[in-house]
Amino acid sequence: MVANNTSTLIAVRDVDSLRRRVKAWRREGKSVALVPTMGALHKGHLTLMDRAQKMADCVVASLFVNPKQFAPSEDFAAYPRQENADFELLNSAGVHLLFAPDVNVMYPAGFSTNIQITGIGGILDGAHRPGHFDGVSTVVAKLLLQTLPDIALFGEKDYQQLVLIRRLVADLNIPVDIIGVPTVREADGLALSSRNAYLTPEERAKAPALYATLCAAAKSIAEGGDIAAVAAAAKAALLESGFRQVDYVEARNADTLAPLTSGKEPGRVLAAAFMGRARLIDNVPLSPQK
Fold first, then answer.
1. Shared domain check, 168 and 69
2. What is the pLDDT of residues 175-228, one digit of tens each?
3. Quick check: 10 and 96 in contact, CB under 8 A?
């Protein structure tokens, strides 16, 4: 991580340094926002940073590719890493502090605690990526307790993660407000994601079918269509449009992620599907966001 002469962003790698900075802000009466990331930053992340700056005096971004949320067969080693470029982006965005710990800082020798959220953590992505949300819950709890921000911001693209983290904070009485920020998309509808870098040009051209299919499914369910039939048709449409595997297309309650029983309740249609080697996730509300 390299800072140039015009950098105002401060980078720290240990918890004591992070806490000293946050305590200094607290003594000055300043509020603090945390935006956790795994790096490989894009416009979606910068939208989170911008929202954070509007809601708090000081913004902390964390950068940590968390090994505990990757299965042995997944892409931990290949996950995009561009720390120097991320530093420059955060500096240009006006972020105040970057917390970029090494693995041995987050999980020192002897670390043996695992947070498991039953129910929410075992459905949808949790069913297809066993243990994934245990890793997410554990690292997010640590980041929140290490920083103790007033607010923490997460993108709605990872909607199940957002619901899970709200449950985590409520259950453990962690004194932080969790803010969800709407998904940022390309002009053709593809949700911004660090894993989009895996797409070939041909795959990239097909990938927006995920968003289009979910929008059509959400509209159909909101208009009274049979939920199971609409979800099945959406899955078939994704396979026909070039996705090689569809892990799920499901309609769920927007607050609890329980199976949706009616198009009249607050709902989300969520999906995960593979385009080439990229596993893409997305979701849309039943009613357009205002």
1. yes
2. 999 999 999 999 999 999 989 999 999 999 999 999 999 999 999 999 999 999
3. yes
- pLDDT for 1: 52
- Candidate list 42, 45, 96, 132, residue with the active-site label: 45
| Phi, psi for 123 (deg, rounded to 5) | -110, 170
Q: Are residues 154 and 198 in the same domain?
A: no
Domain end marker among 125, 160, 181:
181
Percent of the chain with pLDDT over 70: 97
Residues in the chain, how many? 290
- CA-CA distance, 116 to 134, in Å (whole number)? 5
The boundaries of the domain holding residue 267 are 194-285
pLDDT tens digits for range 219-259: 999 999 999 999 999 999 999 999 999 999 999 999 999 99
Report whether pLDDT(4) > 50: no
Taking CA atoms, 169 is separated from 52, 198, 232, in Å, by 19, 33, 34
Residue 3: CA count within 13 A, CB half-sphere: 12
Examine the residue annotation and report whether 45 is marked as an active-site residue of this protein: yes
Measured distance CA(51)–CA(158) in Å, rounded: 17
Rounded to a whole number of angstroms, the distance between the first and last alpha carbons of the chain is 39
pTM, full prediction: 0.93
Query: Could you tell me if 176 and 202 lie in one domain?
Result: no
**Same structural domain for residues 86 and 224?**
no
Is 141 exposed, middle or buried (CB count within 10 Å of its CB: 0-12, 13-18, 19+)? middle
Question: What is the greatest pairwise CA distance in the chain?
Answer: 60
Is the same domain home to 154 and 208? no
The highest-confidence range among 4-18, 72-86, 164-178, by mean pLDDT, is 164-178
Residue 2 lies in a domain: no
- 149 with 59, same domain: the answer is yes
